[in-house]
Amino acid sequence: MNDENLADPSFRMDSPIGARMRIDGREVSYFSGTSYHTLHGAPAVIEAAIAALRTYGLGPGTHAKMAIYAETEALVCQHFGCEKAVSVASGYLSIMALLLALSDDYDVAFADERSHFSVRDALRCVERPVVWFRHCDPQDLSDQLKRHLKPGQKPVVVTDGVFPITGALAPVDHLVELLKAYPGGLLCIDDSHGVGVLGTSGRGTLEHFGVEGSGTFCAGTLSKAFGGFGGIVPVSRVLAEKIAAKAGVIPGASWPPVPAVAAAGAGLRLFRDDPTMLQALRTNLKHMRDGLSSLGLSIPETPVPIFSVQAPTNLKRVYSRLREKDMVVKYVAADGYSDAPPVETLRIAIFSSHSRAQIDDLVAALKICL
Question: Domains, the chain, ranges and CATH?
Answer without folding.
Answer: 3-30+275-369 (3.90.1150.10), 43-273 (3.40.640.10)
